[in-house]
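Last lecture ended with a question: if I hand you only a sequence, what can you say about the shape of the protein? Today we answer it with a concrete record. The protein is Divalent metal cation transporter. Below, first the input exactly as provided, then the predicted structure, then a couple of comments.
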Amino acid sequence: MSASNRRNALIGAAFLMATSAIGPGFLTQTATFTQNLLASFGFVILISILLDIGAQLNIWRIIAVSEQRAQDIANRVFPGAGYFLALLIVIGGLAFNIGNVGGAGLGINILTGLSPEMGAIISGGVAVGIFLFREAGRAMDRFAQVMGFIMIALTLYVAWRASPPLGEAALRTFVPEKLDAVAIVTLVGGTVGGYITFAGAHRLLDAGVKGKESLPEVNKSSVSAILIASVMRVVLFLAVLGVVSQGVALDPQNPAATPFRHVAGHAGLLIFGVVIWAASITSVIGAAYTSVSFIAGLSPAIEKNKNKWIIGFILISTLVLAMVGRPAQVLVLVGTLNGLILPVSLGLILLAAYRADIIGDYKHPKWMTVCGVVVVAAMAVLSGMTLVKYIGGLTA
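The predicted structure:
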């Protein structure tokens, strides 16, 4: 692999992971938590970034060193665990992709006036088009980069126009007035939960960036991915904080759109249309690519025709959205499932980090293990509590 292709793969993997995290749910969560916690949400973002990095470094390094996909590593740790993990990832990825396609349809609706269903179909066609290219991996990498830059640039403009209280935000990032553990877990799950963290790691594997000699590059790409997603989170946080600090209430139907509309009127709404479309379409691509990467090893036929399976995954998501609409209750349940996937997947990876038959003579840093265990414990307890609460609500 040439140095140029290797560099593009590393950058592409970082943007694929980051833009997979930045979906319609990411936008809504950030806006809602900012309204609830105000400037103290900066502290939640800071803690979640540290936990995200701890989780992602563990996962990306072990995948790179073992030169195996996550499901294959899991099967080596406990026979059958990889199939279970793949099932969780595919179910979660498909359900979330229905929501992602819906977000893309909403973006087209805002920009053109077409129905959200028609917008979803058009967006699904765009996503499918990426995987019709002979060099689909490179096309996906470049598309994720362009969309990522567009999202951040447009939201940065809105944040500047919103005139947020930067001094207060900086102070409360380190000295918060309010604390919300659930918000931290939600952000961690939304950034590195479910299929998201594996998007970049599996992309690097497919691009041939693997082995102990690649670890410095893998570290850099891994942390860069978290920082890209976090820049978007911080910029949107400041945009929302600017308007709610002026006494503006967020639209409960679409809270993330409020700062865009407030600072720039109809033009701001169009900017939001571009942002939510870019956020959603890249999440559609990331979810489809990563979900199929978890089942590709089950059959040589799937591996050989991986792009066709990815296209099928996107088409199913699009058709369900267009015919049935967004199944809200299913998405809520799978949202909790997404949070539960992280402690399962990260726990298996941490066990693999101490198996010589998987990682050879590689020595995993103890501080990374400690960080990983903290994330596993926190996500397992709080996600479990949320799941019990949800099931209790259904049976009440």
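Comments.
1. The chain has one domain: 3-395.
2. Confidence is low (pLDDT under 50) at residues 327-331.
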